[in-house]
Amino acid sequence: MPAQNRRPGRRLRAALAGAATLATAGALIAALPADAARHPAQGRYQDVQLLSFNDLHGNLEPPTGSSGQVTETQADGTTKKIDAGGVEYLATSLRTARKGHPYSVTAAAGDLIGASPLLSGLFHDEPTVEAMNKLDLDVTGVGNHEFDEGATELARLQNGGCHPKDGCYEDGRTFEGADYPYLAANVTDEKTGKPILAPYWVWKQHGVKVGFIGVTLEGTPNIVSAEGVKGLKFHDEIETVNKYAKILDKQGVKSIVALIHEGGTPASGSYNYTCDSPGAGDGISGPIVDIAKGITPKVDALVTGHTHQAYVCTVPDPAGNPRMVTSASSYGKLYTDTTLTYDRRTQDIVRTSVKSPTSANHVVSRTQEKAPDMTALIGQWNKLAAPVSNQSVGYISADIPGRGATTPEEPLGDLIADAQLAHAKSLDPKASLALMNPGGVRSDLVFKASGSEGDGVVTYGEAFTVQPFSNTVNLVDLTGEQVVTALQQQVSGSNEASPKILQPSAGLTYTLDMTKSGAARVVVDSIRLNGAAIDPAATYRVAMNSFLAGGGDGFAALGAGKNPLVGSDDLKAFNDYLTANSSAANPIAPPAANRITLIK
Predict the structure, then answer these.
(1) How confident is the model over 264-287, as pLDDT tens digits?
(2) 3-class SS at 472?
(3) What does the alpha-carbon distance between residue 144 and residue 216 come to, in Å, rounded to a whole number?
Protein backbone atom coordinates (compact mmCIF):
# COMPACT_ATOMS: atom_id res chain seq x y z
CA MET A 1 0.00 0.00 0.00
CA PRO A 2 1.39 3.44 -0.87
CA ALA A 3 2.80 5.19 2.20
CA GLN A 4 0.87 8.35 1.41
CA ASN A 5 -2.39 6.48 1.81
CA ARG A 6 -1.44 4.66 5.00
CA ARG A 7 0.01 7.66 6.79
CA PRO A 8 -1.29 11.20 6.16
CA GLY A 9 1.30 12.35 8.72
CA ARG A 10 3.01 15.68 8.25
CA ARG A 11 0.87 16.64 5.25
CA LEU A 12 -2.19 16.32 7.47
CA ARG A 13 -0.67 18.42 10.23
CA ALA A 14 0.50 21.03 7.75
CA ALA A 15 -3.01 21.32 6.38
CA LEU A 16 -4.40 21.71 9.87
CA ALA A 17 -1.73 24.11 11.08
CA GLY A 18 -3.36 27.16 9.54
CA ALA A 19 -6.73 26.39 11.07
CA ALA A 20 -7.67 27.89 14.43
CA THR A 21 -7.78 25.50 17.37
CA LEU A 22 -11.55 25.48 17.37
CA ALA A 23 -12.16 25.61 13.62
CA THR A 24 -13.33 22.82 11.39
CA ALA A 25 -10.84 21.40 8.94
CA GLY A 26 -13.27 19.04 7.24
CA ALA A 27 -12.60 20.20 3.70
CA LEU A 28 -8.85 20.00 4.19
CA ILE A 29 -9.05 16.57 5.72
CA ALA A 30 -11.37 15.27 3.05
CA ALA A 31 -8.80 16.08 0.40
CA LEU A 32 -6.05 14.09 2.13
CA PRO A 33 -4.39 11.88 1.25
CA ALA A 34 -4.72 12.40 -2.51
CA ASP A 35 -4.97 9.31 -4.69
CA ALA A 36 -1.81 9.95 -6.65
CA ALA A 37 -1.59 6.58 -8.38
CA ARG A 38 -4.46 5.86 -10.78
CA HIS A 39 -4.76 2.17 -11.56
CA PRO A 40 -7.26 0.63 -13.95
CA ALA A 41 -10.08 -1.21 -12.25
CA GLN A 42 -9.50 -4.95 -11.98
CA GLY A 43 -13.20 -5.66 -11.81
CA ARG A 44 -16.47 -4.18 -10.74
CA TYR A 45 -16.18 -5.25 -7.10
CA GLN A 46 -13.27 -4.56 -4.76
CA ASP A 47 -13.05 -5.89 -1.20
CA VAL A 48 -11.93 -3.27 1.31
CA GLN A 49 -10.58 -4.46 4.64
CA LEU A 50 -11.71 -2.33 7.59
CA LEU A 51 -9.71 -3.01 10.77
CA SER A 52 -11.07 -1.30 13.87
CA PHE A 53 -10.79 -1.06 17.63
CA ASN A 54 -11.97 1.25 20.42
CA ASP A 55 -11.47 2.32 24.03
CA LEU A 56 -7.73 1.72 24.23
CA HIS A 57 -7.42 4.22 27.10
CA GLY A 58 -3.67 4.46 26.78
CA ASN A 59 -3.09 0.80 27.66
CA LEU A 60 0.26 0.45 25.92
CA GLU A 61 1.42 -2.32 28.23
CA PRO A 62 -0.74 -5.44 28.64
CA PRO A 63 -3.54 -4.65 31.11
CA THR A 64 -3.44 -6.70 34.30
CA GLY A 65 -6.00 -8.86 36.06
CA SER A 66 -9.46 -9.27 34.58
CA SER A 67 -8.95 -6.05 32.64
CA GLY A 68 -6.48 -7.96 30.48
CA GLN A 69 -8.68 -10.94 29.65
CA VAL A 70 -11.42 -11.79 27.19
CA THR A 71 -13.99 -14.56 27.51
CA GLU A 72 -14.31 -17.14 24.75
CA THR A 73 -17.18 -19.59 24.38
CA GLN A 74 -16.01 -23.10 23.44
CA ALA A 75 -17.73 -25.57 21.13
CA ASP A 76 -19.18 -27.45 24.10
CA GLY A 77 -20.73 -24.28 25.55
CA THR A 78 -18.16 -23.78 28.30
CA THR A 79 -16.12 -20.59 28.51
CA LYS A 80 -12.47 -19.83 29.08
CA LYS A 81 -10.47 -16.71 29.81
CA ILE A 82 -7.70 -15.61 27.42
CA ASP A 83 -4.98 -13.12 28.30
CA ALA A 84 -5.06 -10.38 25.69
CA GLY A 85 -4.04 -6.82 24.90
CA GLY A 86 -0.97 -4.62 24.91
CA VAL A 87 0.07 -2.42 22.01
CA GLU A 88 3.07 -4.62 21.20
CA TYR A 89 0.64 -7.42 20.39
CA LEU A 90 -2.03 -5.19 18.85
CA ALA A 91 0.53 -3.90 16.35
CA THR A 92 1.53 -7.44 15.43
CA SER A 93 -2.10 -8.48 15.05
CA LEU A 94 -3.00 -5.58 12.78
CA ARG A 95 0.14 -5.87 10.67
CA THR A 96 -0.48 -9.59 10.21
CA ALA A 97 -4.13 -8.98 9.32
CA ARG A 98 -3.18 -6.43 6.65
CA LYS A 99 -0.97 -8.87 4.73
CA GLY A 100 -2.50 -9.72 1.38
CA HIS A 101 -4.97 -6.84 1.59
CA PRO A 102 -3.84 -3.93 -0.60
CA TYR A 103 -7.11 -2.12 0.20
CA SER A 104 -6.97 -1.87 3.98
CA VAL A 105 -7.95 0.98 6.29
CA THR A 106 -7.63 1.10 10.09
CA ALA A 107 -10.09 3.11 12.18
CA ALA A 108 -10.98 3.62 15.83
CA ALA A 109 -14.11 4.72 17.67
CA GLY A 110 -12.79 6.95 20.42
CA ASP A 111 -11.36 6.87 23.94
CA LEU A 112 -7.91 5.95 22.68
CA ILE A 113 -6.65 8.31 25.38
CA GLY A 114 -7.83 9.42 28.79
CA ALA A 115 -8.23 7.36 31.97
CA SER A 116 -4.85 5.95 30.99
CA PRO A 117 -2.25 4.04 33.00
CA LEU A 118 0.68 6.08 34.26
CA LEU A 119 2.95 5.19 31.34
CA SER A 120 0.72 7.26 29.06
CA GLY A 121 -1.24 9.44 31.48
CA LEU A 122 1.84 10.89 33.17
CA PHE A 123 2.82 12.39 29.81
CA HIS A 124 -0.64 13.65 28.80
CA ASP A 125 -1.05 10.61 26.49
CA GLU A 126 1.70 11.61 24.07
CA PRO A 127 3.03 8.02 24.23
CA THR A 128 -0.31 6.64 23.01
CA VAL A 129 -0.50 9.07 20.11
CA GLU A 130 3.04 8.08 19.09
CA ALA A 131 2.09 4.41 19.35
CA MET A 132 -0.98 4.96 17.16
CA ASN A 133 1.24 6.69 14.58
CA LYS A 134 3.52 3.65 14.48
CA LEU A 135 0.45 1.42 14.35
CA ASP A 136 -0.60 3.15 11.11
CA LEU A 137 -3.97 4.19 12.44
CA ASP A 138 -5.74 6.04 9.62
CA VAL A 139 -8.58 7.80 11.45
CA THR A 140 -10.42 7.91 14.76
CA GLY A 141 -13.54 9.44 16.15
CA VAL A 142 -13.42 11.21 19.49
CA GLY A 143 -14.80 9.69 22.68
CA ASN A 144 -15.79 11.36 25.91
CA HIS A 145 -12.32 10.81 27.40
CA GLU A 146 -10.68 12.75 24.60
CA PHE A 147 -12.15 15.76 26.43
CA ASP A 148 -10.74 14.99 29.89
CA GLU A 149 -8.22 17.81 29.51
CA GLY A 150 -10.34 20.03 27.28
CA ALA A 151 -10.56 20.94 23.61
CA THR A 152 -7.31 22.92 23.53
CA GLU A 153 -5.32 19.92 24.76
CA LEU A 154 -7.11 17.66 22.25
CA ALA A 155 -6.10 20.07 19.48
CA ARG A 156 -2.48 19.87 20.71
CA LEU A 157 -2.57 16.09 20.49
CA GLN A 158 -3.79 16.45 16.91
CA ASN A 159 -1.39 19.16 15.81
CA GLY A 160 1.66 18.63 18.03
CA GLY A 161 3.72 20.87 20.26
CA CYS A 162 4.96 20.67 23.82
CA HIS A 163 2.55 20.69 26.75
CA PRO A 164 1.81 24.27 27.85
CA LYS A 165 2.66 23.55 31.50
CA ASP A 166 4.88 20.46 31.57
CA GLY A 167 6.76 21.33 28.39
CA CYS A 168 8.68 18.75 26.37
CA TYR A 169 9.73 15.56 28.09
CA GLU A 170 13.09 15.11 26.39
CA ASP A 171 15.65 17.73 25.44
CA GLY A 172 15.69 18.44 21.73
CA ARG A 173 12.52 16.44 21.05
CA THR A 174 9.17 18.06 20.29
CA PHE A 175 5.91 16.12 20.25
CA GLU A 176 4.73 16.02 16.62
CA GLY A 177 1.06 15.17 17.13
CA ALA A 178 -1.18 12.59 15.51
CA ASP A 179 -0.57 11.41 11.96
CA TYR A 180 -4.28 10.55 11.80
CA PRO A 181 -7.29 12.86 12.01
CA TYR A 182 -9.53 13.05 15.06
CA LEU A 183 -13.13 13.43 13.91
CA ALA A 184 -15.61 15.35 16.05
CA ALA A 185 -18.65 15.99 13.88
CA ASN A 186 -21.12 16.52 16.73
CA VAL A 187 -18.90 18.70 18.95
CA THR A 188 -19.11 22.40 18.15
CA ASP A 189 -17.79 25.64 19.59
CA GLU A 190 -20.63 27.36 21.45
CA LYS A 191 -19.62 30.72 20.01
CA THR A 192 -19.01 29.86 16.36
CA GLY A 193 -21.27 26.82 15.99
CA LYS A 194 -18.54 25.09 14.00
CA PRO A 195 -17.07 21.64 14.71
CA ILE A 196 -13.93 21.91 16.82
CA LEU A 197 -12.15 19.33 14.66
CA ALA A 198 -12.77 17.76 11.28
CA PRO A 199 -16.25 16.19 11.08
CA TYR A 200 -15.29 13.68 8.38
CA TRP A 201 -12.40 12.25 6.39
CA VAL A 202 -12.21 10.39 3.09
CA TRP A 203 -9.92 7.42 2.55
CA LYS A 204 -8.86 6.97 -1.08
CA GLN A 205 -7.10 4.07 -2.76
CA HIS A 206 -6.83 3.55 -6.52
CA GLY A 207 -10.28 4.94 -7.29
CA VAL A 208 -11.94 3.54 -4.17
CA LYS A 209 -13.33 6.15 -1.76
CA VAL A 210 -14.69 5.53 1.74
CA GLY A 211 -15.86 8.39 3.94
CA PHE A 212 -15.63 8.33 7.74
CA ILE A 213 -17.79 10.41 10.09
CA GLY A 214 -16.83 10.57 13.77
CA VAL A 215 -19.15 11.39 16.69
CA THR A 216 -19.13 10.91 20.44
CA LEU A 217 -22.16 10.35 22.61
CA GLU A 218 -24.39 13.38 23.01
CA GLY A 219 -24.31 12.88 26.78
CA THR A 220 -20.55 13.50 27.04
CA PRO A 221 -21.03 16.60 29.28
CA ASN A 222 -22.72 14.37 31.87
CA ILE A 223 -19.69 12.09 32.22
CA VAL A 224 -16.77 14.51 31.78
CA SER A 225 -15.66 17.26 34.14
CA ALA A 226 -17.28 20.62 33.43
CA GLU A 227 -13.88 22.16 32.74
CA GLY A 228 -13.18 19.57 30.03
CA VAL A 229 -16.25 20.50 27.99
CA LYS A 230 -16.35 24.21 28.74
CA GLY A 231 -17.36 26.23 25.71
CA LEU A 232 -18.48 23.16 23.77
CA LYS A 233 -21.84 21.88 22.61
CA PHE A 234 -22.60 18.22 21.92
CA HIS A 235 -25.25 17.32 19.38
CA ASP A 236 -27.49 14.36 18.62
CA GLU A 237 -25.57 11.45 17.12
CA ILE A 238 -28.22 10.45 14.55
CA GLU A 239 -28.88 13.97 13.28
CA THR A 240 -25.17 14.71 12.98
CA VAL A 241 -24.23 11.53 11.13
CA ASN A 242 -27.16 11.96 8.78
CA LYS A 243 -26.18 15.57 8.10
CA TYR A 244 -22.62 14.73 7.10
CA ALA A 245 -23.65 11.61 5.20
CA LYS A 246 -25.64 13.92 2.93
CA ILE A 247 -22.63 16.20 2.52
CA LEU A 248 -20.37 13.30 1.61
CA ASP A 249 -22.97 11.94 -0.78
CA LYS A 250 -23.12 15.29 -2.58
CA GLN A 251 -19.32 15.19 -2.88
CA GLY A 252 -19.59 11.84 -4.64
CA VAL A 253 -18.58 9.74 -1.63
CA LYS A 254 -21.19 6.99 -1.54
CA SER A 255 -19.41 4.54 0.79
CA ILE A 256 -19.58 5.75 4.38
CA VAL A 257 -18.57 4.38 7.79
CA ALA A 258 -19.68 6.04 11.04
CA LEU A 259 -17.31 5.97 14.01
CA ILE A 260 -19.63 6.33 16.99
CA HIS A 261 -18.47 6.50 20.59
CA GLU A 262 -21.63 5.02 22.00
CA GLY A 263 -22.45 1.37 22.35
CA GLY A 264 -24.58 -1.43 23.61
CA THR A 265 -24.50 -4.55 25.72
CA PRO A 266 -24.67 -8.02 24.17
CA ALA A 267 -26.57 -10.82 25.88
CA SER A 268 -23.30 -12.68 26.43
CA GLY A 269 -19.93 -11.46 27.61
CA SER A 270 -18.05 -13.78 25.25
CA TYR A 271 -16.31 -11.98 22.41
CA ASN A 272 -17.38 -14.70 19.94
CA TYR A 273 -21.06 -14.57 20.90
CA THR A 274 -23.40 -14.33 17.91
CA CYS A 275 -25.70 -11.44 18.70
CA ASP A 276 -27.82 -12.02 15.58
CA SER A 277 -29.66 -14.89 17.24
CA PRO A 278 -32.49 -15.63 16.91
CA GLY A 279 -32.83 -12.66 14.55
CA ALA A 280 -30.70 -9.76 13.29
CA GLY A 281 -29.58 -7.65 16.25
CA ASP A 282 -31.75 -9.53 18.75
CA GLY A 283 -28.81 -10.22 21.04
CA ILE A 284 -27.82 -6.63 21.78
CA SER A 285 -29.44 -3.84 23.76
CA GLY A 286 -28.52 -0.31 24.73
CA PRO A 287 -28.32 3.14 23.12
CA ILE A 288 -26.52 1.99 19.97
CA VAL A 289 -29.55 -0.02 18.85
CA ASP A 290 -31.80 3.01 18.49
CA ILE A 291 -28.93 5.01 17.01
CA ALA A 292 -28.30 2.32 14.40
CA LYS A 293 -31.98 2.17 13.53
CA GLY A 294 -32.09 5.94 13.03
CA ILE A 295 -28.97 6.52 10.96
CA THR A 296 -29.52 6.96 7.24
CA PRO A 297 -29.03 3.98 4.91
CA LYS A 298 -26.32 6.06 3.21
CA VAL A 299 -24.03 4.84 6.02
CA ASP A 300 -22.79 1.32 5.35
CA ALA A 301 -21.25 0.27 8.68
CA LEU A 302 -21.06 1.47 12.29
CA VAL A 303 -17.89 1.08 14.36
CA THR A 304 -18.85 1.76 17.98
CA GLY A 305 -17.46 1.81 21.51
CA HIS A 306 -17.88 3.35 24.98
CA THR A 307 -19.45 0.33 26.72
CA HIS A 308 -16.22 -1.73 26.52
CA GLN A 309 -18.20 -4.65 25.12
CA ALA A 310 -17.43 -7.04 22.29
CA TYR A 311 -20.02 -7.56 19.56
CA VAL A 312 -20.51 -7.98 15.86
CA CYS A 313 -24.19 -7.53 15.08
CA THR A 314 -26.40 -6.90 12.09
CA VAL A 315 -28.94 -4.20 12.91
CA PRO A 316 -31.20 -3.32 9.98
CA ASP A 317 -31.06 0.30 8.81
CA PRO A 318 -34.23 2.40 8.35
CA ALA A 319 -34.70 0.87 4.88
CA GLY A 320 -34.58 -2.63 6.33
CA ASN A 321 -31.20 -3.48 4.81
CA PRO A 322 -28.57 -5.35 6.83
CA ARG A 323 -25.88 -3.16 8.36
CA MET A 324 -22.90 -4.18 10.48
CA VAL A 325 -22.53 -2.72 13.99
CA THR A 326 -19.29 -3.65 15.75
CA SER A 327 -17.30 -3.05 18.93
CA ALA A 328 -13.95 -4.57 19.95
CA SER A 329 -14.14 -4.57 23.76
CA SER A 330 -11.44 -2.31 25.23
CA TYR A 331 -7.77 -1.87 26.11
CA GLY A 332 -6.58 -3.33 22.79
CA LYS A 333 -7.71 -6.87 23.68
CA LEU A 334 -9.58 -7.35 20.40
CA TYR A 335 -9.68 -5.92 16.92
CA THR A 336 -12.49 -6.19 14.38
CA ASP A 337 -11.87 -7.27 10.79
CA THR A 338 -14.69 -6.24 8.46
CA THR A 339 -14.85 -6.84 4.72
CA LEU A 340 -16.67 -4.12 2.79
CA THR A 341 -17.37 -4.92 -0.85
CA TYR A 342 -17.00 -1.77 -2.92
CA ASP A 343 -18.91 -1.48 -6.20
CA ARG A 344 -16.80 0.59 -8.61
CA ARG A 345 -19.84 1.26 -10.76
CA THR A 346 -22.05 2.72 -8.02
CA GLN A 347 -19.13 3.78 -5.78
CA ASP A 348 -21.07 2.31 -2.87
CA ILE A 349 -20.70 -0.63 -0.50
CA VAL A 350 -22.81 -3.59 -1.53
CA ARG A 351 -25.24 -4.58 1.20
CA THR A 352 -27.30 -7.43 -0.17
CA SER A 353 -27.85 -10.99 0.95
CA VAL A 354 -25.24 -12.06 -1.61
CA LYS A 355 -22.45 -9.59 -0.85
CA SER A 356 -23.33 -8.23 2.58
CA PRO A 357 -20.32 -7.07 4.64
CA THR A 358 -18.76 -9.75 6.82
CA SER A 359 -17.12 -9.06 10.15
CA ALA A 360 -15.53 -10.80 13.14
CA ASN A 361 -13.69 -9.90 16.32
CA HIS A 362 -10.23 -11.38 16.83
CA VAL A 363 -8.25 -11.80 20.04
CA VAL A 364 -5.03 -9.82 20.40
CA SER A 365 -3.21 -12.83 21.80
CA ARG A 366 -0.10 -12.50 23.92
CA THR A 367 1.31 -15.74 22.50
CA GLN A 368 2.33 -13.99 19.27
CA GLU A 369 5.54 -12.05 18.79
CA LYS A 370 5.79 -8.52 20.09
CA ALA A 371 6.27 -5.66 17.64
CA PRO A 372 9.87 -4.49 18.25
CA ASP A 373 9.14 -0.83 17.52
CA MET A 374 6.39 -0.81 20.13
CA THR A 375 8.66 -2.51 22.65
CA ALA A 376 11.24 0.22 22.03
CA LEU A 377 8.63 2.98 22.40
CA ILE A 378 7.36 1.51 25.69
CA GLY A 379 10.91 1.17 26.95
CA GLN A 380 11.70 4.78 26.08
CA TRP A 381 8.72 6.16 27.99
CA ASN A 382 9.12 3.69 30.87
CA LYS A 383 12.63 4.99 31.39
CA LEU A 384 11.22 8.50 31.82
CA ALA A 385 8.37 7.28 34.06
CA ALA A 386 10.37 4.85 36.23
CA PRO A 387 11.43 7.29 38.99
CA VAL A 388 7.76 7.95 39.71
CA SER A 389 6.07 4.73 38.62
CA ASN A 390 8.08 2.24 40.68
CA GLN A 391 7.62 3.90 44.06
CA SER A 392 5.90 1.64 46.59
CA VAL A 393 2.77 3.17 48.13
CA GLY A 394 1.24 0.21 49.99
CA TYR A 395 0.63 -3.51 50.35
CA ILE A 396 -2.34 -5.81 49.69
CA SER A 397 -2.91 -9.43 50.73
CA ALA A 398 -4.85 -10.50 47.60
CA ASP A 399 -6.37 -9.15 44.40
CA ILE A 400 -8.80 -6.30 45.06
CA PRO A 401 -11.27 -6.21 42.14
CA GLY A 402 -12.38 -2.88 40.80
CA ARG A 403 -13.15 -2.66 37.09
CA GLY A 404 -13.15 -6.45 37.01
CA ALA A 405 -15.61 -6.93 39.87
CA THR A 406 -18.66 -9.07 39.13
CA THR A 407 -20.94 -7.19 41.54
CA PRO A 408 -22.23 -3.60 41.50
CA GLU A 409 -20.40 -2.91 44.75
CA GLU A 410 -16.71 -3.28 44.01
CA PRO A 411 -14.18 -4.11 46.76
CA LEU A 412 -11.78 -1.56 45.29
CA GLY A 413 -14.54 1.02 45.06
CA ASP A 414 -15.19 0.60 48.79
CA LEU A 415 -11.48 0.98 49.51
CA ILE A 416 -11.29 4.20 47.50
CA ALA A 417 -14.38 5.58 49.28
CA ASP A 418 -12.74 4.78 52.63
CA ALA A 419 -9.58 6.57 51.51
CA GLN A 420 -11.55 9.65 50.48
CA LEU A 421 -13.43 9.71 53.77
CA ALA A 422 -10.15 9.47 55.69
CA HIS A 423 -8.74 12.38 53.68
CA ALA A 424 -11.93 14.37 54.22
CA LYS A 425 -11.78 13.81 57.99
CA SER A 426 -8.26 15.22 58.01
CA LEU A 427 -9.73 18.41 56.54
CA ASP A 428 -12.95 18.48 58.53
CA PRO A 429 -13.64 16.08 61.43
CA LYS A 430 -17.35 16.44 60.72
CA ALA A 431 -17.02 14.44 57.48
CA SER A 432 -19.34 11.45 57.86
CA LEU A 433 -19.44 9.52 54.59
CA ALA A 434 -17.93 9.30 51.12
CA LEU A 435 -19.32 8.21 47.76
CA MET A 436 -17.26 7.12 44.75
CA ASN A 437 -18.50 6.85 41.16
CA PRO A 438 -17.96 3.37 39.68
CA GLY A 439 -16.69 4.73 36.36
CA GLY A 440 -13.79 6.36 38.18
CA VAL A 441 -12.39 2.99 39.26
CA ARG A 442 -10.38 2.15 36.17
CA SER A 443 -8.68 -1.13 37.02
CA ASP A 444 -8.05 -3.76 39.71
CA LEU A 445 -5.26 -3.92 42.26
CA VAL A 446 -3.46 -7.16 41.50
CA PHE A 447 -1.48 -9.12 44.10
CA LYS A 448 0.98 -10.61 41.62
CA ALA A 449 3.96 -8.38 40.91
CA SER A 450 3.88 -6.56 37.58
CA GLY A 451 7.63 -5.91 37.70
CA SER A 452 10.40 -6.30 40.23
CA GLU A 453 8.49 -4.76 43.14
CA GLY A 454 7.36 -8.10 44.61
CA ASP A 455 3.97 -9.73 45.13
CA GLY A 456 1.46 -7.68 47.11
CA VAL A 457 3.29 -4.39 46.60
CA VAL A 458 1.19 -1.54 45.22
CA THR A 459 3.29 0.87 43.18
CA TYR A 460 2.50 4.47 42.34
CA GLY A 461 2.03 3.41 38.72
CA GLU A 462 -0.53 0.76 39.68
CA ALA A 463 -2.43 3.19 41.88
CA PHE A 464 -2.36 5.75 39.07
CA THR A 465 -3.95 3.21 36.73
CA VAL A 466 -6.81 2.85 39.22
CA GLN A 467 -7.26 6.62 39.79
CA PRO A 468 -5.95 8.49 36.71
CA PHE A 469 -8.28 11.48 36.46
CA SER A 470 -6.61 14.06 38.71
CA ASN A 471 -9.93 14.83 40.40
CA THR A 472 -9.89 16.49 43.79
CA VAL A 473 -11.57 15.16 46.93
CA ASN A 474 -14.37 17.61 47.72
CA LEU A 475 -16.48 18.05 50.84
CA VAL A 476 -20.03 19.42 50.71
CA ASP A 477 -23.01 19.71 53.01
CA LEU A 478 -26.00 17.61 51.96
CA THR A 479 -29.27 17.08 53.74
CA GLY A 480 -30.32 13.57 54.53
CA GLU A 481 -33.04 13.96 51.92
CA GLN A 482 -30.40 14.85 49.30
CA VAL A 483 -28.32 11.80 50.27
CA VAL A 484 -31.36 9.58 49.78
CA THR A 485 -32.12 11.26 46.45
CA ALA A 486 -28.55 10.70 45.30
CA LEU A 487 -28.81 7.00 46.11
CA GLN A 488 -32.08 6.86 44.17
CA GLN A 489 -30.45 8.60 41.19
CA GLN A 490 -28.15 5.57 40.88
CA VAL A 491 -31.06 3.57 39.48
CA SER A 492 -33.51 6.13 38.14
CA GLY A 493 -33.69 8.95 35.64
CA SER A 494 -30.78 8.87 33.21
CA ASN A 495 -29.30 5.92 35.13
CA GLU A 496 -32.39 3.71 35.20
CA ALA A 497 -31.55 1.69 32.10
CA SER A 498 -27.88 1.34 33.06
CA PRO A 499 -27.49 1.86 36.82
CA LYS A 500 -24.39 3.57 38.21
CA ILE A 501 -23.95 2.23 41.72
CA LEU A 502 -22.01 4.59 43.96
CA GLN A 503 -19.32 2.95 46.04
CA PRO A 504 -20.00 3.71 49.75
CA SER A 505 -17.54 4.30 52.55
CA ALA A 506 -17.63 2.10 55.65
CA GLY A 507 -20.66 2.79 57.84
CA LEU A 508 -23.13 3.52 55.03
CA THR A 509 -25.41 0.52 54.42
CA TYR A 510 -28.69 -0.02 52.60
CA THR A 511 -30.67 -2.50 50.49
CA LEU A 512 -30.97 -2.29 46.72
CA ASP A 513 -33.96 -4.21 45.35
CA MET A 514 -33.43 -4.68 41.60
CA THR A 515 -36.76 -6.52 41.24
CA LYS A 516 -38.41 -3.10 41.43
CA SER A 517 -38.07 -0.18 39.04
CA GLY A 518 -36.68 3.33 39.21
CA ALA A 519 -36.14 5.08 42.51
CA ALA A 520 -38.16 2.37 44.32
CA ARG A 521 -35.16 0.08 43.94
CA VAL A 522 -33.55 1.86 46.88
CA VAL A 523 -35.21 0.63 50.08
CA VAL A 524 -35.27 3.96 51.88
CA ASP A 525 -35.98 2.67 55.40
CA SER A 526 -32.93 0.36 55.11
CA ILE A 527 -30.45 3.25 54.75
CA ARG A 528 -28.18 3.48 57.77
CA LEU A 529 -25.11 5.52 58.63
CA ASN A 530 -23.10 3.91 61.40
CA GLY A 531 -26.22 2.00 62.40
CA ALA A 532 -28.54 5.03 62.63
CA ALA A 533 -31.30 5.85 60.14
CA ILE A 534 -30.63 8.76 57.81
CA ASP A 535 -32.48 11.87 59.04
CA PRO A 536 -33.95 13.68 56.01
CA ALA A 537 -33.74 17.04 57.79
CA ALA A 538 -30.20 16.64 59.17
CA THR A 539 -27.08 17.95 57.45
CA TYR A 540 -24.28 15.55 56.56
CA ARG A 541 -20.74 16.38 55.49
CA VAL A 542 -20.17 14.21 52.42
CA ALA A 543 -16.91 13.53 50.57
CA MET A 544 -16.74 12.77 46.86
CA ASN A 545 -14.50 13.53 43.92
CA SER A 546 -14.84 16.78 42.00
CA PHE A 547 -16.55 15.01 39.11
CA LEU A 548 -19.45 13.91 41.33
CA ALA A 549 -19.44 17.24 43.14
CA GLY A 550 -20.18 18.81 39.76
CA GLY A 551 -23.25 16.60 39.32
CA GLY A 552 -21.52 14.16 36.97
CA ASP A 553 -23.00 10.80 35.94
CA GLY A 554 -26.53 12.11 36.46
CA PHE A 555 -26.14 12.80 40.19
CA ALA A 556 -27.74 16.23 40.31
CA ALA A 557 -28.35 15.87 44.05
CA LEU A 558 -24.62 15.64 44.72
CA GLY A 559 -24.04 18.71 42.58
CA ALA A 560 -26.37 20.72 44.84
CA GLY A 561 -24.11 20.51 47.90
CA LYS A 562 -23.40 23.57 50.04
CA ASN A 563 -20.30 24.90 51.82
CA PRO A 564 -17.78 23.22 49.51
CA LEU A 565 -14.24 22.50 50.63
CA VAL A 566 -11.66 21.27 48.11
CA GLY A 567 -9.04 18.84 49.33
CA SER A 568 -6.08 17.13 47.69
CA ASP A 569 -6.24 15.17 44.45
CA ASP A 570 -7.90 11.77 44.70
CA LEU A 571 -4.77 9.81 43.79
CA LYS A 572 -2.81 11.39 46.63
CA ALA A 573 -5.66 10.63 49.03
CA PHE A 574 -5.66 7.01 47.86
CA ASN A 575 -1.90 6.63 48.09
CA ASP A 576 -1.76 8.28 51.52
CA TYR A 577 -4.41 5.86 52.77
CA LEU A 578 -2.57 2.82 51.43
CA THR A 579 0.69 3.99 52.98
CA ALA A 580 -0.87 4.77 56.36
CA ASN A 581 -2.92 1.59 56.61
CA SER A 582 -0.68 -1.14 55.25
CA SER A 583 2.79 -2.62 55.56
CA ALA A 584 4.60 -5.70 54.31
CA ALA A 585 3.74 -7.43 57.59
CA ASN A 586 0.16 -6.15 57.69
CA PRO A 587 -1.19 -5.74 54.15
CA ILE A 588 -4.70 -4.51 53.35
CA ALA A 589 -7.19 -7.30 52.72
CA PRO A 590 -9.90 -6.92 50.07
CA PRO A 591 -13.03 -5.27 51.54
CA ALA A 592 -15.96 -7.65 51.81
CA ALA A 593 -18.15 -5.44 49.59
CA ASN A 594 -21.13 -6.06 51.87
CA ARG A 595 -22.26 -2.50 52.44
CA ILE A 596 -25.04 -2.83 49.87
CA THR A 597 -27.50 -5.70 50.23
CA LEU A 598 -28.55 -6.63 46.70
CA ILE A 599 -31.87 -8.25 45.87
CA LYS A 600 -32.03 -9.54 42.30
Answers:
(1) 999 999 999 999 989 889 999 999
(2) strand
(3) 6
